[in-house]
Amino acid sequence: MKLKPLSDQVIVITGASSGIGLVTARTAAAAGAKVLMVARSEDVLRGLVAEMQADGQTVEAKAADVGDAAGVQAAADYAVATWGRIDTWVNDAGSAIFGKVLDTPLDEQERLFRTNYFGAVNGCVAAVPYLKRQGGALITVGSLASDMPAPPMGIYSATKHATKAYVEVLRMELAQEGAPISVTLVKPSGIDTPIGQHAENHGSAGEAQIPPPIYDPQLVADAILACAVHPRREITVGGGGRAQVLFSQHFPALYEWLAPRVAQMAYSPTKKQPTPSNLKWGVGAGRERSGEHPHALKTSLYTTAALHPKTTAAGLGGLALAVGLLVARRRRA
After folding, report:
1. Does the active-site annotation cover 156?
2. Which of 130, 156, 166, 215 is catalytic?
3. Which end of the chain is more exposed for a tag (fewer CB within 10 A), N or C?
4. Percentages helix, strand, coil for the chain, rounded to the nearest 5?
5. What is the pLDDT of residues 1-16, one digit of tens each?
6. d(CA 232, CA 219)
7. Mind listing the domains of the chain with CATH numbers?
């Protein structure tokens, strides 16, 4: 499947008013893509669009709650009415809850599923018919939590498990149909966004913290946009997070013993949790990063290698050949 270069694409991004979505929107627009930014915070979106348009970028905004199927469909229709098509759709909108699963009110669990799971579902339902017309990429931002659930983010993990299953089955069904759509699941490690500050927190009065190791959101944006150009099934962003997943899978008993014991490290003892959360309303939008992790990792050799497997293989092959030649010369000497 051949996808268009970014500069020729129309890209719709949900959750585009902060964090990974905002970084992705800015990066795509700077590369020449036409970008529709979708989020709940209409005033913030308007300000962001005005700023980017002033820089000569082709950007529009459509306010919508991704949990509302009609609103998401209206965003898709608006993109097509404005630019004639959709080439890439990015499901990025998401919220978080921190706390024990039995202590989390059911109405909040339902609301989180409405955003994290049904938000992705609504995006897929709206995007697929348009993507089928000329082909394109359907990219969903999941989480490593779908591979290694842990307290105090059990309900968040459950939403990401459900999202992962939906995306994987949708990929199979579209492939069976022969639909010209690349379906990708992006699984970030801990990323320096405001998600902890925006979270609903039932575990502590202290501010919810992003789980380490912490990476810069630009890494995720770059991975998303790489998948918009080169089809991929899935990509994990952050080698440290991938190592944690492998540990949890190979040593499950030890992982299950450790995870609840380190759960209190998910809260700051010196900072209070900001309120209100963004679980039900679009609050605290407009920021890419938390402002608390100036040393967040800006590179990941693992992710770079995963995105460029042929180059990596060639490089390793060349290194092996060089070592072999060196050993052979020493033996002859």
Report:
1. yes
2. 156
3. C
4. 55, 15, 30
5. 899 999 999 999 999 9
6. 16
7. 6-299 (3.40.50.720)
